[in-house]
Amino acid sequence: MILLDKGDTRLILETCKKHKLLRNQTAYVLATAYWETARTMKPVREYGGERYLKSKKYYPYVGMGYVQLTWLFNYKWASDLLGVDFVKHPRKLLEPKHSAEIIVIGMKTGAFTKKKLSDYITLKDSDYISARRIVNGTDKAREIADLATDYEALLLREGYGVDNDTNTNPKPKPSLFGALASLVRLILDLFKGK
Length: 194
Hints:
By secondary structure, this protein is an all-alpha fold. The chain contains 8 helices and 2 strands; from the N terminus they run ααβαβααααα. It has helices at about 10-20, 25-35, 50-55, 70-80, 95-110, 115-120, 140-160, 175-190, and strands at about 45, 65. A two-stranded antiparallel sheet has the order 1-2. It is elongated. The termini are far apart.
């Protein structure tokens, strides 16, 4: 069962707010973390014994964190991003403060697969199934999409993206036509003596 108080969900949520993610984007980040951490919402090391993990092409840079960061180039990317040497100290990827920044920034910028949140999830559309490509092809896309839908409902109920504090639902800027129409109404009112 998904909850906004499970594990490190609140930390991830605050990191999403910090990076100005939309409510539906935040819902998808939370759904991804929930799935990738085996529903714990705690950074985890890829499951499997050392024999199994050593069989992976990316060993010793095995999946770590909320998003299961793998491969040397991703460890180097995260090191450069946060100023922490994850190549020499991979267990630091299991520290929630690091893992939260990595999942949010990585998904926002497309660092993992060159696909980013805004490619699939915007103010107008929430293509949660295709959004799986941000992290891992289409593996378990339907299951994660369903989780994102549930998270979005919880976030809405909590008010995420409803007020200006979260900065996730920008107000439309007035158009030149709208400003001109307001000016004409003001001038007409002046001449009518209002």
